[in-house]
Specification:
Layout (H helix, E strand, L loop, with lengths): L6 H8 L6 E4 L6 H9 L6 E4 L3 H13 L6 E4 L6 H8 L4 E7 L4 H5 L26 H7 L2 H12 L4 H14 L5 H12 L9 H12 L1 H15 E11 L2 H18 L2 E2 L9 H6 L7 E6 L2
Parallel strand pairs: 1-2, 1-4, 2-3, 4-5
Antiparallel strand pairs: 5-7, 6-7
Helix pairs in contact: 7-8, 7-10, 8-9, 11-12
Length: about 290
């Protein structure tokens, strides 16, 4: 089960009230949306985005089970299309937008798409297979040494990118790398040292970000989210790694300088020690927020 990170802080900043409307840009397993509709009862609504087609179907079932169809509108779109979807759905008077970035626990535990180091069947990593054509398997088995090094360095900040790329080239001469476990084990073998996180974490992150164009989509999504907010509306973003943080800081600076946005979080908010103990995946989370004038 996915535990939303910094949920209390998100709700404290957004401060949802009776009959207000919000956007959940990253529905996932729906916990944030469901909390918001409790606080905006009886007529407050949430427009929610879920880009993964499988998770979208599960989300629709969950909304139906919770009898929340009238108050949560879930769309199978990437948040980069936020302005277009808001217009199409005629969803206005938006008091706040929340982004909880990265992928959900479901992706690691149940999707079977090769996000987990233990997955012995897949090396896919496409969040939306309908829109993204290139898989991680194709990248690992077909790209040149220099291309692999570039992906691992630029999108994963992996210091041992050259050694890892060389090992991949050598391995695929013998046989293709076909599963996430195979790739993870190879990277672990190359790095050959114990780390706090799995040795293949940065390589997997790099592939996922590159394949799904996460950084480009994030910039578009944040700018679009700001544009659809009404005056005094708030934008809340939870990120999990340095590359996301760079994009968020750049966009927030631009909105402050060009649009007069007010940065609410002068200091970024991190999870408490208690929350990290309860949910270790929250340890790298960082929350930033701003308000539209």
């Amino acid at each position: 089960m996915h535990i939303p990170v910094l949920l209390n802080k998100v709700l404290e900043i957004l401060n949802p009230k009776k009959n207000e409307n919000f956007i959940d840009a990253t529905f996932g397993e729906g916990n944030v949306s469901l909390e918001i509709i409790k606080l905006t009862y009886p007529r407050g609504r949430v427009l929610a985005f879920e880009w993964d087609p499988d998770l979208y179907q599960l989300g629709q079932q969950k909304i139906k089970t919770m009898k929340a169809e009238k108050r949560i509108k879930l769309v199978n779109k990437n948040f980069k299309e936020i302005e277009k979807v808001v217009k199409k759905e005629k969803f206005f008077q938006i008091k706040g937008v929340v982004f909880d970035l990265g992928i959900s626990s479901w992706h690691y535990e149940k999707s079977g798409k090769g996000f987990s180091f233990k997955d012995e069947k897949s090396l896919d990593m496409r969040i939306n297979f309908r829109e993204i054509k290139t898989t991680a398997r194709e990248i690992i088995n077909n790209l040149s040494y220099h291309q692999l090094v570039s992906i691992f360095k630029v999108y994963g900040e992996e210091r041992e990118a050259e050694k890892i790329a060389q090992a991949i080239i050598q391995r695929r001469k013998i046989k293709k790398i076909t599963s996430a476990k195979e790739l993870a084990d190879l990277v672990k073998q190359v790095k050959g040292k114990k780390e706090k996180i799995h040795p293949a974490t940065k390589v997997f992150m790099a592939l996922r970000i590159f394949i799904n164009q996460e950084l480009e989509n994030l910039e578009k999504g944040l700018l679009g989210a700001y544009n659809v907010l009404e005056s005094e509306g708030k934008l809340v973003v939870i990120s999990f790694h340095g590359l996301e943080n760079i994009v968020i800081k750049k966009v927030f600076k631009k909105l402050k300088e060009e649009k007069g946005a007010e940065i609410i979080t002068k200091k970024t908010i991190k999870p408490s020690r208690e929350e990290i103990l309860e949910n270790p995946k929250s340890r790298s989370a960082t929350l930033r927020s701003l308000k539209k004038p």
